[in-house]
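Notes from the 1:1 (GR / supervisor)

We went over the backlog. Supervisor wanted to see one worked example end to end before approving the batch request, so GR pasted a single chain during the call. The sequence is below; no edits were made to it. Supervisor asked that the structure be written out right there so they could see what the output format looks like.
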Amino acid sequence: MKVTAEKNEKVANMIFASIYPLYLNRLEKNGRTKEELNQVIKWFTGFDQDALQELIDTKATFRTFFQKAKIHPNANLIKGVVCGYRIEEIEDEFELYRQCRRLEKLIDELARGRKMEKILREAKK
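Structure output shown during the call:
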């Protein structure tokens, strides 16, 4: 599937605080914890617990969320299909949408029981 400017804008304007509980609920149903979710988010974005809570409290959009994030240098190692979109094929002009799908891929892997050391990708030596 191809990303459109409209789809990118729709995601950019979504409120992170409204999606975070959905991520958490999915993970808890699969035996994972809030701490694990926050660990994955911290690895990907650099947000510690306080910064994450502030983004939730201020009802930041995904646009603001990703503008403030310091995306991990190994984020480009996150590949695969999420919601019908192959992450590595999302065009550069839709960077925000790509980052959102990368985050969802990490959460999906966590929900499926993948080991944390595999989720938090390290460059091959």
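Supervisor's comment: Residues 95-111 form the longest helix (17 residues).
Batch request approved.
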